[in-house]
Each structure stands twice: as C-alpha cells, then as structure tokens.
Specification:
The chain has 603 residues and is α+β, with helices and mostly antiparallel strands. Helices cover 50% and strands 20% of the residues.
C-alpha cells in the first residue's frame, strides 16, 4: 500500500472513529437523559396515582361512615337486633343508599356475615361473607383493596368497613368504589404516557384482564413477563416493551403491585411511557452523524491529498533518485526545498551519493592497483615455467658449441624443437591473458535462452559420451514458456560453454549434468548443475576471483570470464555447493538490461 493510500486510510479511519465516538456518546447521553426524564415522569404519575388512591380511600371511608351513621341504617340495625327479625324487607336498601352516597359497591351484612342487601349484586342475598366477622377494629381500619364479585365476574374495588352495634348485634356496612376505566380516566396523564390496570384473578396471565381508560386493551401478550415477575415477588419494576420491530413504538412500563390487607396481590398498575421521542432523537443523531461523517470523509480526502502532496512527493523523488543510483547513475541528486525532516533527508541523500562517488573512485583506483599487481604476479608465475626450459636449452647449446663442436648440429636440432614448443606455450599464455583483457561489450539482440542451451548441449554431446572413466548424462529441464531476452548470443554462449566445461572437469568419473531454465518476475534463470565432488564454502567464495583455480592445469580465468559476461548483461551469478553433493551455478538475467548498459552498448 502506498503512503498516499495509507494517509487516506488514516484520515478516513480517524474521522469515522471520531464521528462514531461522538455519535455514540451523544446517543448514550441522550438515552440517559431520556431515561432520567422518563423515570421522573413515571414517578410523578405514580405519585399522582397514590394521591388519587388516598383521596378516594378517604372519600370511601367518609361515605361509608356516613351510611353507618345514617338514621335509616341505625333504625335497620335496631330492627334486625330484635329476636326473630326478618331481613327480607331490607333487600333493596343497599342500592338506594349507594346511590345517595355515590358508592359503586355497598353490602349490608348481619352479625354472622350473612348478606342482607347488596347494591352491586342483589342476587347474592343470603350469602355469607365470613371475612367481615374477623376480629378487626374496623373503626380504625382505613380503605383497602378487595376483589368484589359482580354479575359480570370479579372487580377490583377500594372499600371501607364500618360496624353498627346495637343490643350486642353487629350490622356490617362495606362500601366502596371500583378501580376500573373510570378511575383510570380520572388520572391526568402527560403526553406520551398511559395507565393500564391488570386485575389478577390468580392462575396464568389473562390478557383480557388488562384495561385502560377506554376499556380492554388488545395485544398485551408482551406484558406477561413483567406481570409474572411482579406476581412472583410483588415489588415495583420497570421494563421496556417492544410491541413491533419499530423502535419508535416501544414503551417503558413502570409496574406497581396493588395488594390487599393481607399482602396478597390483587392487581398491577402499569404506567407506560412512549419511547418514540427517544427513537426520533436517536434517528436524528444517526442522520446528523452520517452527514458529518460524509463531510468528514470528503475533508479527509482533501487533507490526505494535501498531506500526501506535501509529504509523499519528496519521498517519491528520493525513491526515484535511489532507483537511479541503483541503476548506475551515481550523480543523481534531490532538490532540497525545505528545512524540515524531509529536507534534511534529501540533503543527507545528496551527501551520501557524493560520498559514494568518492569511495567508488577510491575503490576503483585500489582495485586497479590490486588487479595490476595480481596480473603481474600471475603473468610472472605463468611465464616463469616456460622461461626456465628456454634458459636451460640455450645454456646447453652454448656448452655443446664450446666443448663438442662435432655434435653441435644434433644438439641444435633437438634444442630448436624444445625452444619452439616453449615459445608456443608462451604464445598460448599471452593469448589467454589478452582475451580476458579484451572482453567486448555485449551487442544486444533478442535471444532465446532455451535454443542457446540446446545448441551448447549438442556441441558437447561427443564429450558426454566419451568420458574418461564414465559417461556424463545430460538432463535438460527447460521452461518452454520463456520468451526472448535482450543479450549478446556469442558472449552468453561462451559463458555457458565455460560453465559446462567446468562441470565436466568436476565429474572425471561421470555423472549427471543438469541444464535448467526458469522464468522469474523480470527475466530468466539459467542453472548448470553437476554431481561432482562439490566445493567447500571457502572455495565457493573465491571461485570468481581472476587467476584463482583449484585445477592442476588452468589459468583461473574461465569463471572470471563468465562473471564478467553476466555482469555486462546486468545479471547476477551465484553458486551453491556442498562437499560430495555436487555444485550448481545459477545465472539470473534481466529481460531487458539496465538503461546504463544499453546506453553504453549504443555508443
């Protein structure tokens, strides 16, 4: 990935993370504020319910006390306290009293709890209500919740009980008001809230027992888990209810258990608060975050373009200059246009190239001196061998002429043959050194490496078959997908012949010679391998040194010539070898030699 792309990715990621983080924090803060406001609103509504509950309880208590203290009830209690009194005449008394005192339920019961008159369910005349006979101080007891039986079923009511006692006989007056939709409609609800009432009749959750100010509420199955939790352990609970997949339709319900005098659960008041406002605010935050994010991305692209133009352009110039230095143009320079770190880097690069040129010149000079010294040493060594026989032969001629002139002609003929042979040897030695000194520049043209390998293989076929102690078996492993490379066919052929000769010399007892070609990313690879005795690491490190040889006969120029040819083509030669495991020479050639080499060849 380029530096420009990295900067763009960095700016984009930074903007996206920043916008996402801010949007997330704002959403959390908004949700927290909404939950806090919703809790305050629910608490206010619950407190309103409690006040309304207390107010109605006080009204019920006062109204029941008024009925108990009324003249008609006192007279009724007096008549029923007489022995053998008949309660039948009072069957309808509760209805008129309930209407007069604005009560929805009213039961008049005798001393044993027998129902004398019922305003809400007259047909229950004669039923016994044992709960009123419990030894309680009803005068001190306030209003409480109780489930009352009505013709349509059961109803939750807030009732109070008072006792009229005459002649040791009790007349129980139990009256109250129902907690139904009229009660719910009396609550003043803020916008976005509603109140539901669930009458618990025992058993499983009954959806039809959930009502609001308009009546029975439909589709209340989602409330079952909340109500079941309250039934298991009566306490106030809050829970978010999602009616549909639309988050705007969700509500937060605050459940308040409604308990009887013995702590039994009789119902649950549900205060629901809509989450539509929160959903709309969160949706608005997401839209704003998306818009800000898009704007941030555009800004990030612009900033990354500006930063990359300011940062990457000098870096690219440095990279181009480094490529030029790598290709051989040691005079490459970079313009220093700033005093910052990039400018310091450019200035350091220029100083480095100047230092490299200086060191290169010193190295070249030192190498030239070393090369001439080595050439002189090797030349002296090579010439000393034939010069010694020449000197001995001339000395023998002089002695033969002085001591035995009669045999001079015979000695002269033999000495002349010796002189000619040694002079020929000198000529050969001088010719080899001359060839190495006059290595020509490559004449580039398209060359098919596979065809060149096949030609060299055919050239040495006779030597493969006529090995000294064993036959050499050639193996060709050629990549047929190779195309042509720009090279000098004559120089490459000469280099390949030297490598093959070197491999044959390494296998005097026969073996396998492998010639292999492979395609690589920017050129071809040529390998020449043998199964000879191999080389030590030290021998491998000195193989390409001119005049170095491990053979008894040789000038040590063969592999030096190969390296020179490969180097002139912009390639590289390497060797891999282990003792007793053979040797492989690998030549990497570029498909197109570097511009510097092509330019030198053109001249």
């Amino acid at each position: 990935m380029s530096l420009r792309a990295k900067l763009l990715s960095l700016f984009t990621l930074t903007v996206a993370l920043s916008v996402g983080l801010v949007a997330g924090i704002v959403s959390l803060r908004v949700e927290s504020a909404f939950e806090r406001l919703d809790g305050q609103r629910s608490e206010a509504l619950v407190e309103q319910f409690r006040r309304e509950f207390s107010r109605r309880g006080a009204e019920v208590r006062e109204q029941v006390e008024g009925i108990a203290n009324s003249e008609s009830v006192q007279r009724m209690a007096l008549n029923l306290s007489r022995p053998g009194a008949d309660p039948a005449p009072y069957v309808d008394e509760a209805q008129s009293l309930a209407q007069a005192h604005h009560l929805e339920t009213l039961d008049l019961m005798g001393d044993d709890g027998t129902l004398i008159s019922s305003a809400e369910y007259p047909a229950r005349f004669g039923y016994r209500e044992d709960w009123v006979t419990h030894p309680l101080d009803w005068a001190a007891q306030g209003a409480f919740l109780r489930t009352e039986e009505i013709p349509d079923g059961m109803a939750l009511a807030l009732i109070a009980v008072r006792v009229v006692r005459i002649n040791d006989k009790n007349l129980f007056v139990a009256g109250g008001k129902r907690l139904d939709r009229e009660f719910l409609s009396s609550l003043v609800l803020p916008a976005g809230t509603r109140a539901l009432l669930y009458h618990d009749s025992g058993g499983q959750f009954a959806p039809q027992s959930v009502i609001d100010a308009s009546g029975t509420v439909a589709n209340t199955a989602q409330l079952a888990p909340l109500i079941d939790d309250v039934r298991k352990q009566p306490r106030e609970l809050s829970r978010a209810i999602a009616w549909t997949s639309d988050a705007a339709g969700a509500e937060t319900f605050h459940a308040i258990p409604l308990q009887g005098p013995q702590g039994e659960l009789l119902g649950v008041l549900l205060v629901g608060s809509s989450r539509r406002e929160l959903a709309q605010i969160e949706s608005h935050i997401r839209v704003v975050a998306l818009l800000v994010g898009c704007g941030g991305l555009v800004l990030g692209i612009l900033l990354s373009g500006w930063a990359s133009a300011r940062v990457t352009r000098p870096v690219e110039e440095l990279a181009d200059a480094a490529q030029e230095v790598a290709s051989g143009n040691w005079t490459a320079r970079v313009d220093v246009s700033s005093d910052d770190e990039i400018g310091q880097l450019a200035e350091a690069f220029n100083k480095m190239t100047m230092e490299l040129i200086r060191q290169r010149d010193q190295l070249v000079q030192a190498e030239r001196v070393a090369a001439w010294r080595e050439l002189a040493r090797r030349l002296a060594h090579e010439l000393k061998n034939p010069l010694f026989p020449l000197q001995i032969t001339v000395e023998n001629l002089i002695r033969a002429r002085d001591r035995n002139p009669g045999q001079f002609e015979e000695v002269f003929a033999e000495s002349a043959r010796t002189l000619m042979a040694e002079l020929a040897n000198l000529k050969t030695i001088i010719g080899r050194f001359s060839d190495f000194a006059r290595m020509p520049k490559p004449q580039l043209q398209p060359v098919l490496i596979n065809d060149l390998v096949r030609d060299v293989g055919r050239l040495f076929q006779a030597q493969f078959d006529a090995g000294g102690n064993g036959r050499v078996r050639p193996e060709l492993d050629l990549d047929e997908s190779l195309g042509a490379v720009q090279a000098d066919p004559d120089l490459l052929r000469r280099a390949l012949e030297n490598l093959v000769l070197n491999a044959l010399d390494a296998m005097p007892g026969g073996g396998t010679l492998t010639l292999r070609t492979r395609r690589r990313r920017d050129g071809v690879t040529l390998e020449v391998g043998d199964t000879g005795s191999g080389l030590t690491p030290e021998e491998c490190s000195r193989l390409f040194t001119p005049y170095y040889t491990s053979k008894q006969h040789g000038t040590g120029l063969g592999l030096a010539i190969v390296q020179s040819v490969v180097s002139d083509h912009g390639g590289r030669i390497s060797v891999e070898s282990q003792p007793q495991r053979g040797t492989t020479f690998r030549v990497d050639l570029p498909e197109h030699p570097p511009e510097v080499l092509r330019g030198a060849n053109a001249h």
